[in-house]
Write a structure and sequence with these properties.
two-stranded antiparallel ribbon, 10 helices, 11 strands, about 40% helix, elongated
Length: about 290
């Protein structure tokens, strides 16, 4: 139950309040909502009467929400966004069965996406919605059912399904290195491109090559796809997963800066909350992935 119906404002009144808060005037709100100025003002007054307190004050030609109304409006904005997203989800899959999956951009695009077509064929009743998350999050605070995770089993409160190992390769633009024979120690003297979520990746790679490093300055970038582009444009040497590096090598835009792909200590997983009953859609995905990995 939602409590007394008198405490549930109408959506037009809430939309008017949100627009006035964001735009600062009833005139601007009216233009955006295709209403008259008086209609917006009337919606605000209806809402104030329903709640039993003043929500808006006038400062010259501008309208300003009271401090309490601003806090209220922040919650209203979130609720309206959730309602809009729920409607989009319903329209996209009127038979139900949506699965909200958080993906790591590079692995999600290059490893998972090509396989999802097969899942869609096997489970046409499930609509998979994808969104990007770069680091672990609290499932209780997100509208997500499962996620792709890289690293160790350090995400608390989740189940794990191993998906793939990872091998990385240092790459650069074809004419970036002048020397024909370059050893791993020489790479430490070059500008290196670092992934923000893996600050020790280069150190781990050099250690695996038997090279001691104390400081590895370079550009910090948040996604592999951006690092790849930076390397293509000659901004430094990138340490990329082989599934991403190989695609750019085949296009002739990158070359190996040294050696062959090296296995990392991390692993790719599908994770989903362990404390709640598993949604049927997640169970379908887990069962399907177990058959393809």
């Amino acid at each position: 139950m939602f409590g007394p119906r008198r405490l549930l404002p109408s959506i037009p009144s809430l939309l008017a309040l949100e627009a006035v808060d964001r735009l600062g005037s009833a005139t601007a709100a009216a233009e955006e909502m295709s209403l008259t100025h008086s209609a917006v003002s009337r919606q605000i007054k209806v809402l104030e009467g329903q709640i039993g307190m003043r929500l808006v004050t006038r400062e010259g030609a501008r309208l300003k929400l009271t401090p309490a109304a601003r806090d209220y409006c922040e919650r209203v904005r979130i609720i309206l966004g959730d309602l809009s997203q729920s409607t989009l989800t319903l329209r996209a899959n009127p038979s139900g069965g949506s699965l909200n999956l958080a993906i790591l951009p590079a692995f999600g695009v290059h490893w998972l996406a090509p396989r999802l077509k097969s899942f869609a064929v096997d489970h046409p009743e499930v609509t998979v919605n994808l969104s990007t998350r770069l680091v672990p999050f609290d499932f209780a605070q997100e509208r997500l059912d499962a996620a792709l995770h890289y690293g160790a089993r350090d995400w608390r409160g989740v189940n794990y399904l191993p998906l793939a190992d990872e091998r990385v390769l240092p790459v650069c633009a074809p004419r970036y290195l002048n020397a024909k024979a370059v050893g791993p120690a020489d790479l430490a003297q070059c500008p290196l491109l670092h992934l923000a979520t893996r600050p020790n990746a280069w150190e781990d790679w050099f250690r695996a090559q038997g090279v001691d490093t104390s400081s590895l300055p370079g550009m910090l970038i948040d996604q592999f796809s951006t690092i790849a582009q930076a390397a293509i444009h000659g901004m430094g040497i990138a340490l990329l997963p082989d599934y991403l590096a190989q695609a750019e090598i085949e296009r002739g835009r990158l070359v190996s800066a040294w050696g062959t792909p090296t296995l990392t200590a991390g692993h790719y997983y599908l994770v989903w909350p362990e404390e709640n009953p598993t949604k049927p859609q997640v169970a379908h995905l887990v069962e399907w992935l177990q058959g393809v990995v």
